[in-house]
Amino acid sequence: MANHKKQKNIYTTFWLNVVFLLLAFAFVKGSVLNQQGYSWVYGMLKGNMKTIKQYPNLTLPQRSEAKMGGSYSYYKYIADNTPKNAVIYIPARDAFFPKGQQSMFTGEPYNKMWAIRFLYPRKVVVPQEMGHSIYSRKLTHIAIVNGVGLEMLSYSVSPNFRIGVLPINNKEILKQTK
């Protein structure tokens, strides 16, 4: 009889564990996996794995460039051509993706968090922060995208200059050329 009770307790414990496991799964699926942030992370990881499998012999920077194209190359160029203590103005979405034109950019290069990912430890200022952020008064560089940003410089630049990063004033240019 004691053996029968012990066996019954084992089955009861097993089924309780199954029920709690199903409840936990339902909770995780309902409250965590359906959230946008987790969907984004899952999509990003899935895309990263696809790129890794597609280009197994590339270095991380080469894979990033293969996956993100012009956006990665542009931010790598900015990082390579500005000091680590730079405060960089990044233009709005319309500069990166002009209406009716094809763009070399992908993703959200106009998004501050997206830009910081590539430019850290540099500070990034976006249009919404101009006049409101302490860093908007300490700009050192302007990211030029499709000619947007040239109007913020204190010196003249050829209107043919379409993409790059320039110091905010020509004193910085003189320092860099010496």
Question: Secondary-structure blueprint of this entry?
Answer:
Elements: H1 2-33, H2 36-54, H3 60-68, H4 70-80, E1 87-89, H5 93-96, H6 112-119, E2 123-125, E3 141-145, E4 163-167, H7 170-177
Helix pairs in contact: 3-4
What do these coordinates show?
The chain is α/β, with parallel strands linked by helices. It has 2 domains: 2-54; 69-177, no CATH class. 51% of the residues lie in helices and 9% in strands. The chain is built from 7 helices and 4 strands. It has helices spanning 2-33, 36-54, 60-68, 70-80, 93-96, 112-119, 170-177; strands at 87-89, 123-125, 141-145, 163-167. Strands 2-1-3-4 form a 4-stranded mixed β-sheet. The protein is elongated, with a radius of gyration of 26 Å. The termini are far apart. The model is unreliable at 173-178 (pLDDT under 50).
In a nutshell, what does this entry contain?
The chain is α/β, with parallel strands linked by helices and 178 residues long. The chain has helices at 2-33, 36-54, 60-68, 70-80, 93-96, 112-119, 170-177, and strands at residues 87-89, 123-125, 141-145, 163-167.
For the structure shown, list the relevant keywords:
7 helices; 2 domains; four-stranded mixed β-sheet; 4 strands; disordered C terminus; 178 residues; elongated; alpha/beta
